[in-house]
Structure of Pectinesterase catalytic domain-containing protein:
Amino acid sequence: MPYTRREKILDACIAITFVATVCTVILFALLLTVLRPKCPVQKILPSITVAIDGSGDFRTVSDAVAAAPSHSRKYFGIAIKPGVYYEEVSVPVEKTRLAFIGGGNGVTVISSNRSWSNPLEDTAATLNVKGDGFVAIDITFENSGNPTTGYTVAVANDAERTAFIHCSFKGYKGVLKTSGFAQFYGRSNVYGAVDVIWGIGSTVFQSCSVYVEKPLAGQDQPRALAFQQRSSPSSTGGFVFQGCSLDASPGSDQSGSPPVFLGRPGGAYSRIVFMESYLGAVLGPSAGWLTGSFIPPATLYLKEYNNRGPGVGPAERRINTTDATQFTVGPFIEGDKWLPKTYVEYTSGFL
Ligand SMILES: *[C@@H]1O[C@H](CO)[C@@H](O)[C@H](O)[C@H]1NC(C)=O
Ligand SMILES: *[C@@H]1O[C@H](CO)[C@@H](O)[C@H](O)[C@H]1NC(C)=O
């Protein structure tokens, strides 16, 4: 049967319609991909804002904390705009899961100047955390108080499952107290000279820099990086420095100063592990525990794994991969159970 002209036109029409339909479908698919709403940002969003210039909901951080919900099961974000906030901030036990979100490390600064020497008093600190689940992002905490009259504590953290990321801690003596179970400090800087980090906490510092300051004139007491206070074998406490850099503060010539000790034991079972880190010359290769004239108990635990730099200690301080694994974020602070909800960057195992 010969093809009629009419049939040819019909065939052509069908072909054109088919091609046009396919093109339209492809076009729509492309448009949908481009115009599709962006995935929600993976971070804690602020519910209220603090701004020193009055442009936010509150002018002081303390007022914002007072206004935050108590016993919260969800993270409650408080944005803290750039500026220096001169105040002492307390996060009490009932203020759970607060997240301070600053404008940048060194850009949003919380500062106070009270030094603390009375062990019967609660620690005077620029930030005092007792509420579990606390998170701080992009903030500098400093205590510029007089170190000759006591510890100058920037942050005293007694809470569980807390995380600080992209923060700085500045002071001279006892700068950061870490005393709760499961504390994580990531990509942060700590500046201090004596007992810089102290407490009974089970704490991991990951990808942090610890800058040991030069001794102040007349302050010739021995310096220790960490004053770890684990006192029983059943305690989960211990400090882990993973992927950290531990060195003299930038530009400070400390060649004439006595070496800095890695730790000072505040309990018979004090425990500190340095892994995958850079140990600078300021630490001195032999600087271990600062025990003065005391004979250190054999139960102290100061270990190294896969470190580098002139401050690396003797071979008997090294542990094997199996032992070191126990001190990574997953096993040691059960990080995989709670850190993902904070959205802070972390690595569960070795770096
Ligand atoms: C300490 O801080 C308070 C409150 O900001 C301030 O009034 C005082 O001048 C400061 N003292 C010193 C010695 O810096
Ligand atoms: C690792 O070291 C511990 C001692 O701290 C030892 O008991 C264990 O057998 C070692 N494991 C391996 C795989 O070498």
